[in-house]
Amino acid sequence: MISIHEKTLHDLEFYTVLQQVSELCITDLGRLKILETKPFPTKEDVLQSLKYTNEYVSSFYNDNRIPNHGFEPITKEIKLLGIENSYLETKSFKKLVSITITIRDISKVLKKFEEYYPSLSKHSASIEIIPNLISEIDTIIDRFGDIKDNATNTLFQIRQSINSVRGKINQSFNSALTSYHNLDYLDDIRESVVENKRVLAVKAMYRRKVKGSILGSSKTGSIVYMQPEATFQYARELNNLEFEEKEEIDKILRNLTEYIRPYTNTLESYQNFLTQLDVIYAKAKHAQSLNAILPELNEVKVYEAKDAFHPLLYVSNKNEGKKTLPQSIVLHPENRIIVISGPNAGGKSITLKTIGLLQVMLQSGMLIPVHEKSNICLFDRIISDIGDNQSIENHLSTYSYRLKQMNYFLKKCNKNTLFLIDEFGTGSDPELGGALAETFLEEFYHREAYGIITTHYSNLKVLANELPYMQNANMMFDEKSLEPMYKLALGQAGSSFTFEVAQKNGIPYSLVNRAKKKIERGKVRFDATIAKLQKERSKLEKTERSLKENEKKKQSEADKLEEINAKVQKKLENFQELYDSNQRLIYLGQKVNDISEKYFEDKKKRELMAELFKLVQIENSKRKKVSAKQKLAEKAKEKQIQQEAEKKVAVIRKKKKAAKAKIPKEEKPKPTLKVGDRVRMFDGKAVGSIDSIEKGKAIVNYGFFTTNVNLDLLELVESK
Question: Which of 352-373 are b and which e, b meaning 16 or more Cβ less than 10 Å from the residue's Cβ?
C-alpha cells in the first residue's frame, strides 16, 4: 500500500503542478478532479494510469486522433433521475443524447485503433452503450429542443386544433379591424399588441360602439386598446387547447424519463469516464509541454534518473527564455543514500526537490521530464523535511520541529521508503546537532532506506565516505569566479567555500584569517582538501569536455574525407566507363575505315555490304535487349558522364592552349594545293583527293561521298 504524507506533497510543491495541469482540462469536472489528485494507493493503479497517459500522448503524434471528449455535465439530471416521479426537461434530454454520442464515437475509435490504445480501448469496452436511447429521444424531441408534433397522436390533434383556432383568431381580428376602420372608430395606428395579444387601437370617444373587452389605454387616454368580441371567444378556446398541450407534453416527458431512469448508473458512468478522459488528456498535454516520457519501471529498487528537469523551474525558465540545467541521480541497493554538499545557492535544494517531485508525479500517473534511458522504481512511502518549519502557533522552534519530524521518520522509515531531507542537522549547536544528525543517518542507513540529504556538516560527509552503501555528491563550483555551476557531481563531497566566498564579497583578509584560526586546524585542512579536490575535479571536467569536442571535430573531418573519397571513386568509375565506350567507338571507326579503303581499291559493293553487315551483326550480338525506360536512363547517364568528361577536357585543353600560346611557334610555309592532290582536314583522319578548286574552296572526293571544304582547313598528304 503506497502512502505519501500530505506535508511531503506541500514541501515538493506538488499542488502547484496540479494547478498547471488543471488549466489544460476542457471541462469543469476535469479541473476539479485534477485538483483532488493524490498519488495512487497501489502499484497496479500507478501502472494503469501511466499507460493511459502515455497512450494519449501518442495520439498527438499519429493520424489516429481520439475524438473530442468535451461534454456538458449531467450531475443535475442524474440526481433528478434518482428522485421518484420527477421528470427531465427537453434540454436535459438533449444533453443525454450529446453525452451518449460522445461516448459512442470515442468507443468506436478506441476499438478501431486498439493496437495503438490497448489500455484505453480495454477501459472503454467496459462501458455499456444504452440501446435506442438516441433514437428514442430523437423521435420525440427535435434538434432545437422542442417536442415534435407527431410525438403522440393526441399531441398531433391538439396542435392541429391550436393552428385552426389561431387561424380563426387572425381571421376574426382582421374582419373587425376592416369593419371598424371603415367606420373611422380606430386611431391612425389601427392596432397594437397587449399581453401578447393583438388589440384594436380604438379612439376613446367610440369605445362604447366597439364590441369587445378593454385590455388597456394609452398614457394620454385618447386611445383604448380593445380585443374584439369574436376574437375573445376564440382566445378562450385557444387557452384551453394550450393547457391540454402542456399536459400532454408533461405526460410525454414523464414517459420518456421513465424509459431512461433504469439507465441512471450507466449515464453516471458516461460522465465519470469522460471526466477521467479529460484528466488523462490534461496530463498528456502537460507531458507534451515538458517533453516528458514514461521511463522504464523496475521492481529491483534501482532508481536511475538521467537528465531530470524540475517541472516548475523548466516551465518558468521556458517562459523567460532561460535554459534549465538537468541533473542525474542514481540510487540502487549498493548506493542507497546520497549526501549532497556544496555552497549555498548552488542548487542542492532544487536537485533534492526535482527527484522528490518527479517521483510523486510518476506515482500520480503523470509522465516526467527525464532521459528515455532512465530506469525508475516505485516507493511505498516518500517522506520529506524541507525548508524552515518554525511554528509560532505551536510554539515550536525549527530544531524542535525537526526533532519531531525525525521521530516520525524513525517510525515510518524502511527499505521501501524514500526520504528527502534538506539542510540535515541544522537548527541547533553545530557539534551536538551534527552528532545527532549522524546518528539518525546511521539508523536510516541500517534500515536499508533510500534517501537524498543536503548538508554542510563535515561529519556527515565523512560518514558517507566511510559507509559502503552511501555516497557523497557535490554541487560544482567554479574555483576562479566562485560562481555556482548548478551541476551535480557524484562520488565526492563538496566544500562550502565559506572563506573564499567571504573574501569575494569584500570581507577583509585579516578578518577571514582570524576566523580560520578560531576553528580547529583539522577541520580547516579537511575543508581545504575537499575544496582542492573539487577544483581538480572541475579541471578534469573541462579537460574531458575539450577532449570530447576535439574527438567530434576529428570524426567530422574523417567523415568529410570519406565522403570526398567516395565521390572521387565514383568519378573514376564514370571516367572508366566513358573511356571503354570511346575505345569501342574508335575500334568501330578503324574497322569502317579499313572497309572503306578496301572498297576504294577494288570497288566491290557486294563485299562492302557483306563486311558492313557482318560488323553490325557482331556489335549487335554484344548488346542486351533493354526497355525504352532503361534506354532513356542509360542515355541520360552516358550524357551526364560525357558532359562531366567534356568539362574536365575543356579545362585541360584551355590550360594546354594557354601553355602553347606562351611558346612561340615557327611558322612553316603552307604548300599550294592542286587538283588531284591527296588531302585531309587538320582535325580529321579520312584522306580524299581534290576534284576541283574554285573561289578558295575545294571539292574533296572520299570515295563514298564528296564534300566542299575551305582550302585553309586542308593539309597536304601526298602531291599528285
Answer: bbbbbbbbbbbbbbbbbbbeee
